[in-house]
Amino acid sequence: MPRRTDISSILIIGSGPIVIGQACEFDYSGTQACRVLREEGYRVILANSNPATIMTDPDFADATYIEPLDAAVLRRIIAKEKPDAVLPTLGGQTALNLAMELFANGDIGVEGTPEMIGANAEAIATAEDRDRFKQAMIEIGLSVPESGIAHSMAEAREVIAKIGLPAIIRPAYILGGQGTGIASTQAEFETIATEGLAASPITEILIEKSIAGWKEYELEVMRDHADNCVIVCSIENFDPMGVHTGDSITVAPAQTLSDVEYQTMRDAALACIRRVGVETGGSNVQFALNPANGDLVVIEMNPRVSRSSALASKATGFPIAKIAARLAVGYTLDEITNDITKKTPACFEPTIDYVVAKVPRWAFEKFPGTPGVLGTQMQSVGEVMAIGRTFPEAIQKAMRSMEQGRAGLNADEGELIYEDLDDAALLALTDHPTPERIFVVETALRRGLGIEAVHEACKIDPWFLDQLLMISEERAAIEAHGSIASMSTQELRRAKRLGFSDVQLAYLLGSTELEVREARIAQGVVPTFKTVDTCSAEFAAETPYHYSTWADESEVAPSDVPKVIILGSGPNRIGQGIEFDYGCVHASFALRAAGFETVMVNCNPETVSTDYDTSDRLYFEPLTYEDVMSVIEAEQQSGTVLGVIVSLGGQTPLKLADRLPAELILGTRAESIDLAEDRDRWNALCSQLEIPQPAGGTASEITEALEICGRIGYPALVRPSYVLGGRAMEIVYSDDDLASAMVALSSLGSLGREGGLSSERPVLVDRFLEDATEVDVDAIRDASGEVIIGGIMEHVEEAGVHSGDSACVIPPVTLGAGTLAVIEDYTRRIAEALGVIGLINVQFAVKRSTVAGDSVPTPDAAQVFVIEANPRASRTVPFVAKATGVPLVKVAARVMAGATLSELRIDGTLPDAVQGDHIAVKEAVLPFRRFPKADAVLGPEMRSTGEVMGIDLSFGLAFAKSQLAAGDRMPTSGTVFMSLADRDKPTGLRAAKHFAELGFEIAATTGTAEFFKKEGCSVSLVVAKVGSEEGEEAEDSHCT
């Protein structure tokens, strides 16, 4: 049937900030839904709090509310907009839980309120409530693990007494496995069950007999209102049950199921979606299979587009979110045409003739004290996807996509850490689910420990182990040659078909990457590019969505339109997240609109950039020199390549700037990028420009660092070059601190494994400006020399907290006009001196002084120091664009392609900034709940996973909104605990007095309490530090 005409406006609830378990895949799905529904003529209202998303740009919805995702806020939006329907199934668990809260309050889904489309409240409750789901599955004859439900610890103890240990605890209505865990002892059970009850919004946990070690699968299912159902994709976990599917390597299609097992699972998935009652759209059903006897059980179902839906969409070319949106407004699967083939309907189940591997990306190095062991709670911060004709090819491509300095599955310097392990220790290590386990498993197989022994230790399916052994055996054959010159064309091609990169071949043959590349090309061994077509080539693919392999024929079509290649940002990780994908996407949109053909290269399945219709062509490839050059050469053979954009995807493509052909780099030259990073040259430039910067120098060993600190004094900021997110940055206060920091930086560790230039460059040692205010500036310069200031952001936290972890505000609220004028002048002069063409981000520290007799610094009594300049897009660009209404990336992309700012004003691309009285605050969202053993103290190394934005007419209200959006409820009463270093006590005293004025009680450690008392501020409770004498209660609580 055609689209519904009884509704005209639809509210889409977004997923909010990027958090572990809910990342930018929901921006991808939400963006698709907004575009489709507007194309269908519906008025789209969007609520989301994340400024870094594509969907919150004004082009994607008719009304966009960047507001906290809170039921009370949504209630007000509904009252104002009066939508006919609410679509809650595309915003992850956040949107689903909010929809249920609104339903329970009678705000949606009941007569006289907006209709819930996609999935109604009954279906959501059946899938999300663990007890109801269990009973529903039993009712239709599907098996579930032996289990029981508990709503209290008393009930939990009754259940565990019946089913016994080990057991897995699963809270209801949670995200990314939060609160789940496997308990092997009663003590573990008490802890995990308590945490699980607290994590569930309805205080409910399912206690299941553990099936750790079974094989785990997911099926992506779609259903329309006419009860047509299709399986979009089957996905198999490389890791056995016991590792959260978001933390497991996964493979599509499923590789180890027999046809009978697959058909049984398919039937079960279809029965599940029908019984749960998801009326239209996509759902994800998870199964476990006992490898010993073939028993199959249902684990859970997500009645919404899920994290795996993005992977399934990119793996098959079947746009789940786009089709789910159309199904939600009345279409049936047979009425929707497949975008890839332009011929087949969406009721044709995708079939693929290649293998897709997804590998998660973790950030344990950011959280010292965490064990780094994988379990039932998701801990990864991003992922990569790779496509190959075989599993070995796909998994090796995925490993070199990870941005961790690995060239593939071992056969690089990273493997040396396993050399000293004996066989017994190595085999034991395969049983530990860590991010490095697959490297350990390959090492064990290469040593000849055998598939049977390794399988017994780690429970990874023997088929996967055999595939890894193929890689090991090919490696031995390569090493036997001794040199690249002795390898025949056939042998080289075979190695490439098993995924070996040029870097790996160089490592194994004692050569260099460039020597291998030259020899390979001389023999005609070059990659071909195939097309993702959803139907195993049964129908021609009309959409150029490509992956590389080593076949005989390439499918890249010729084109006579000038092309711009955009290098994406790779896997999400702390320091390089969705903000950089935002830049790549907007560049593609802007350049397509200007008449260029855009070519996107990226390996992240979560993103809008890897949607096949974001750019004219998409290459799902690793962002390495070898792979990027292969794409460039393929595109040059098919037409004219105007150039390559490397400055929008963060550090990942930027590291390639000086290796790619210089004449192809669009925008700022590689020489200018290096000038900003090379400390000696940067210092000389700032001196020449007479722009102050903190005293400092560079050091490659401890004696040099000590000499610098002896000259500049402490505290000092120690950091490596060419890193993102403040990686390994530290503030030191003594020679001992400095020595420890230098040891950490000079050792290989994770910083060395991340590779690139950071581990090869000297360490930067600068005087740290205490009590300074940090300021970020985003600007654009064109080839004519004109510079526009996009935005000046004042940090809320003082210097010492990484800019990505600090709240910031536009416009600045405490800086005077004179200080702002100096900052603008310095920015323009730096951009000019660096020859920037495109975006530049400059960071400043403003050191303010007080007027005699006044304890508060005056706005313009300040000295401005430049900290660093990054001639590329920064993570703040999306926030600035949302706060000012100026599409900075679109402007920058056009500038890099040759336009001037004056030309862009004329054609409307560059509007004036919105002149209003609003204040915008960006706040970071931190993942400490996932890492309870990490010290939750902010510092110079970034640890946030995402951000939110608050907008209002005053700083206080905007800041409060940002806190609400970040999940922090601002307390209005209670006790404030303060324990301060001597250097921080004067500042802390001012804060304590303000808290006391607001009615808060003050608790402090002994030294802090004594200082407060001396300054006329009392505390209600003195708290002893660990190892000292007990504290004692004070008699009063007042500050004067």
Question: What is the strand and helix layout of this fold?
Answer:
Blueprint: E1 9-13, H1 25-39, E2 43-48, E3 63-66, H2 71-81, E4 85-87, H3 92-104, E5 115-116, H4 121-128, H5 130-139, E6 147-150, H6 153-163, E7 167-171, E8 181-183, H7 186-199, E9 205-209, E10 215-223, E11 229-237, E12 250-252, H8 259-276, E13 281-289, E14 296-302, H9 307-316, H10 320-328, E15 355-361, E16 382-388, H11 391-400, H12 423-429, H13 437-446, H14 451-458, H15 462-481, H16 489-497, H17 502-509, H18 513-522, E17 528-531, E18 545-549, E19 563-567, H19 578-593, E20 597-602, E21 617-620, H20 625-638, E22 641-645, H21 651-654, H22 670-677, H23 679-689, E23 696-699, H24 702-712, E24 716-719, E25 730-732, H25 735-746, H26 749-753, E26 763-767, E27 773-781, E28 787-798, E29 808-810, H27 817-834, E30 838-848, E31 862-870, H28 877-884, H29 888-896, H30 901-907, E32 919-925, E33 946-952, H31 955-965, E34 975-978, H32 985-997, E35 1001-1005, H33 1006-1014, E36 1021-1023
Parallel strand pairs: 1-2, 1-4, 2-3, 4-5, 18-21, 19-20, 19-22, 20-21, 34-35, 35-36
Antiparallel strand pairs: 6-9, 7-8, 7-9, 10-11, 10-13, 11-12, 12-15, 13-14, 15-16, 17-18, 23-26, 24-25, 24-26, 27-28, 27-30, 28-29, 29-32, 30-31, 32-33
Helix pairs in contact: 1-10, 4-5, 12-13, 13-15, 14-15, 17-18, 19-29, 24-25
